[in-house]
Specification:
The complex is a heterodimer.
Chain A: H1 4-7, E1 10-14, E2 17-20, H2 27-36, H3 43-55, E3 60-64, H4 69-80, E4 84-85, E5 88-90, E6 99-102, E7 105-110, H5 115-125, E8 130-133, H6 140-150, E9 154-156, H7 163-173, E10 177-179, H8 185-200, E11 209-216, H9 225-236, E12 247-249, H10 252-259, E13 269-277, E14 283-292, H11 295-325
Parallel strand pairs in A: 3-4, 3-8, 5-7, 8-9, 9-10, 11-12
Antiparallel strand pairs in A: 1-2, 6-7, 11-13, 13-14
Helix pairs in contact in A: 4-11, 6-7, 8-9
Chain B: H1 17-38, H2 53-56, E1 59-63, H3 68-79, E2 83-84, E3 87-89, E4 98-101, E5 104-109, H4 114-124, E6 129-132, H5 139-148, E7 153-155, H6 162-172, E8 176-178, H7 184-199, E9 208-215, H8 224-235, E10 246-248, H9 251-258, E11 268-276, E12 282-291, H10 294-312, E13 319-320, H11 322-327
Parallel strand pairs in B: 1-2, 1-6, 3-5, 6-7, 7-8, 8-13, 9-10
Antiparallel strand pairs in B: 4-5, 9-11, 11-12
Helix pairs in contact in B: 1-3, 3-10, 5-6, 7-8
The chains are: A alpha/beta, B alpha/beta.
């Protein structure tokens, strides 16, 4: 059994020779493993959600894709943050039938063909409704066209599809939207910090050696886009590194024993580890960001929806003020 | 062109065998280069960007070679292909006449000879850049001396009267890099955290922070760098009390728990910051671990090269810090 710390003690490859760094039993690592285990929303989470909700006027949100895991998770976060979940959703199937229960809300699932009529009537009933989309890559563009046609602001959480067309559709319709492939707000903050550091201080880490390891659920076949983004910042910082060297861990045994992923999150996690070592080995920088489950993305999506709502409200306010002045 | 030959002793510490090999490779390179520096030849090093160092070579004087940082800077200077002026100063009235560092003989001069020696150095090497690693008590007097003779300098020594230091330099219009933290990459990391805090205040609201730092046992106070990083995380919304910083000073714990290599117990700076989300499903961890003095010596050389460039280009701005050096990009 090799621990996570031992695994990335097999770190540097110098002049073609495998170089094993000394094992460093680190107190903090044991602590971290213990703390990541608990996954249930704690009182703290509910408290912080209520703080957000009480500071923001509640508004209705329709989650397109409630039947999926992300959609359901976002719907739960919406309810726990005190916003209004519109009890309607859509499915890619023609006749999905039935309802699903999320929290204490009964959500009716409508088929693909009913989207336009149902969404129109939702907008009539809830004029300040916002849509959150967690569907599938194939539906991204048609969904965006629908939202733009009906003029409803939306948060696009679904990745993939034709991204250029997506932006084009939104721009030509003047609809408000938040589009982001990464909804983990804090991960985005970290990525942005690395990017800003790289732009401000090019070459600061020249000559440094880099090792990268990432672990995701086995169903994720491609290499983490987030890892690639961080690596590209390090490259601007003067580190020479080939993206192919990113170590992808997809074997569940290794994930459990080596990486330290809690068993209940084997099916949904995103662990990233980066290690920068100076040419003479006397200095090292290590960065980790480890996510279990989907909560961070659901919370980030709710933050995005609240942000967008404020933008929309502000524009209405400006128009109203102008109207009063005329 | 100097051919690199592997010679010298290789430490036989089994645990750090491979790490030692890598370190040894770096040191041998420096030893070979130092030999040629004795004869004052400009050293052309055949590795990537170092090939251009011929154009970047200029005279450098290190004040404080009798100290550990001073010695480390001398080694780094020669390694970088700079021309070491074989002269230094000491606060002792009658110091030993010479000091040998890696086969270079540096003559040490006492306080009474300072002005005379510095004046003649400036005359012989008009484009000399000085690096100061002395003691806090000498900071202001030294700065006055350098300013009097118009010698651009890198102030690596901490302490002294800092406002007075800046005033002295401003009044004299001399070029200087002044920075308490010469670890360039640590400064970059700290700046990145500051930028993140400034741009995204509250992004980590509700997150819990844990901080551990380890330094040599002689360092009694808490790491200033740790405090600066924590301030950023607090701006980001993390919950933390400065009293909660865990300071590790016991050598046993440093070896077994923190993982500090034994030979660096008396000179290291390890920092770990751990952020955990309220529901504990997300964690971020940042570490910066420094062994020895190499990073500060290398950073000082980067600062000297940067300053030399500014002097040559007659830049308008005169006083710089490590952020300025970082913004300039890689100069080697």
């Amino acid at each position: 059994m090799i621990s996570f710390s031992q695994q990335h003690s097999i770190v540097a490859f110098r002049n073609g020779q495998a170089y094993r760094r000394p094992e460093k039993p680190c107190m903090y690592r044991t602590r971290r493993r213990g703390t990541v285990v608990r996954a249930v929303a704690t009182e703290n989470l509910e408290k912080s959600s209520k703080i957000i909700a009480s500071a923001t006027a509640s508004f209705p949100i329709l989650v397109n894709g409630c039947t999926g895991k992300m959609g359901r998770s976002v719907a739960e976060s919406i309810i726990s943050s005190g916003l209004t979940l519109v009890p309607v959703s859509f499915s890619g199937k023609e006749n999905p039938g039935g309802n699903i229960t999320i929290g204490d809300v009964d959500v009716t699932i409508h088929g693909f063909k009913e989207r336009e009529t149902v969404l129109s009537s939702v907008i009539n009933q809830f004029p300040d409704v916002m849509v959150v989309d967690y569907t599938v890559p194939d539906a991204v563009n048609t969904n965006a066209e629908l939202y733009c046609k009906l003029g409803v602001p939306f948060v696009m959480g679904t990745t993939g599809g034709d991204r250029e067309l997506l932006y084009k559709t939104v721009k030509s319709s003047s609809v408000y939207a938040v589009i982001s492939p990464q909804m983990g707000k804090q991960v985005v903050a970290f990525l942005a910090a690395m990017d800003i550091m790289a732009k401000q201080f090019p070459g600061a880490f020249s000559g440094y050696h880099l090792e990268v390891m990432e672990s995701h659920q086995a169903s994720k076949l491609d290499t983490s886009g987030t890892a690639k983004s961080v690596v590209s910042s390090f490259q601007k910082l003067g580190v020479s590194y080939d993206m192919k060297r990113i170590r992808k861990i997809r074997d569940t045994m290794k994930q459990l024993q080596m990486v330290g992923v809690p068993e209940e999150y084997l099916g949904s996690h995103a662990f990233h580890f980066y290690c920068l070592i100076s040419p003479d080995d006397s200095v090292s920088f290590k960065f980790q960001h480890n996510v279990c489950g989907r909560k961070i993305y659901a919370e980030g999506t709710v933050d995005a929806a609240i942000f967008l709502h404020k933008k929309v409200q502000r524009s209405f306010l400006i128009f109203y003020v102008i109207y009063l002045l005329i | 062109m100097l051919s690199l030959t592997l010679s010298g002793n290789c430490s036989l510490l089994p645990r750090l065998n491979n790490r030692r090999k890598a370190l040894f490779f770096a040191r041998t390179k420096r030893t070979s280069l130092v030999v040629s520096a004795l004869t004052r030849e400009k050293v052309a090093i055949s590795q990537d960007a170092m090939a251009d160092s011929r154009n970047l070579s200029f005279p450098i004087l290190v004040n404080g070679v009798t100290g550990k940082m001073g010695k480390a800077v001398v080694e780094a200077a020669v390694s970088a292909g700079l021309e070491l002026v074989p002269v230094s100063f000491s606060s002792a009235d009658k110091p030993a006449r010479t000091l040998e560092i890696n086969d270079i003989e540096i003559s040490i001069h006492g306080p009474s000879e300072r002005e005379e020696i510095l004046a003649s150095v400036k005359e012989k090497y008009p484009d000399v850049v000085l690096v100061d690693y002395t003691v806090p008590d000498a900071v202001n007097a030294n700065a006055e001396l350098y300013c009097k003779f118009g010698v651009p300098f890198v102030m690596g020594t901490t302490g002294g009267d800092r406002p007075l230091l800046y005033k002295t330099v401003e009044d004299s219009n001399v070029y200087a890099v002044i920075s308490p933290q010469m670890g360039k990459q640590v400064v970059a990391f700290l700046a990145a955290m500051e930028i993140m805090a400034e741009q995204f205040p509250g992004a980590f609201s509700g997150y819990k922070l844990e901080v551990m730092e380890s330094h040599q046992s002689t360092k009694l106070d808490t790491s200033g760098t740790a405090k600066a990083v924590i301030a950023c995380f607090q701006k980001l919304g993390a919950i933390f009390d400065m009293n909660e910083i865990e300071m590790i000073r016991d050598p046993e714990e440093q070896i077994n728990m923190v993982g500090v290599p034994e030979e660096y117990l008396s000179g290291h700076a390890f920092h770990v910051y751990n952020l955990t989300s309220p529901d504990e499903t997300v964690s971020f961890e940042f570490q910066h671990n420094v062994c020895g003095r190499s990073i500060y010596a290398e950073g000082s050389i980067d600062a000297a090269i940067f300053l030399h460039k500014k002097v040559q280009s007659k830049a308008e701005k005169k006083i710089y810090d490590m952020i300025d050096v970082l913004r300039e990009g890689n100069m080697r």
